[in-house]
Amino acid sequence: MKAAILFGALSLLQRTHGRRKLQGGTFTPAQLAARWKSVYTLGTLANWRSAGRGPNFIKVAGRVLYTRAAVEAFERAKLAEYVR
After folding, report:
1. What is the mean pLDDT of residues 4-20?
2. Tens digits of residue pLDDT in 19-49
3. Which end of the chain is more exposed for a tag (fewer CB within 10 A), N or C?
């Protein structure tokens, strides 16, 4: 049943986000923390989610996922802050 709910939610996300495929285009919090190495940790990501900060995320069947587009937009914004 959970798989059906997850599949349905992903189908809805694909329809509402154009035809972009989410498979391979999402990160779990652990994958995102690994991408950012020791700069931002799992704890930081959790704190940001509860405070409404950090990259936008989606929750599908209780799982937190970050889209590649949201992560890259966040990285660009952070880079712009450091360049100023």
Report:
1. 48
2. 445 555 999 999 999 999 979 999 999 999 9
3. C
Question: Please, what's the largest Cα pairwise distance for the chain?
Answer: 49
pTM above 0.90, yes or no: no
What is the average pLDDT across 8-16?
A: 50
Q: What is the distance between the alpha carbons of residues 36 and 18, in angstroms, rounded to a whole number?
A: 28
> All domains of the chain, ordered by start, with CATH?
2-83 (1.10.10)
C-alpha 53/C-alpha 70 separation (Å) is 12
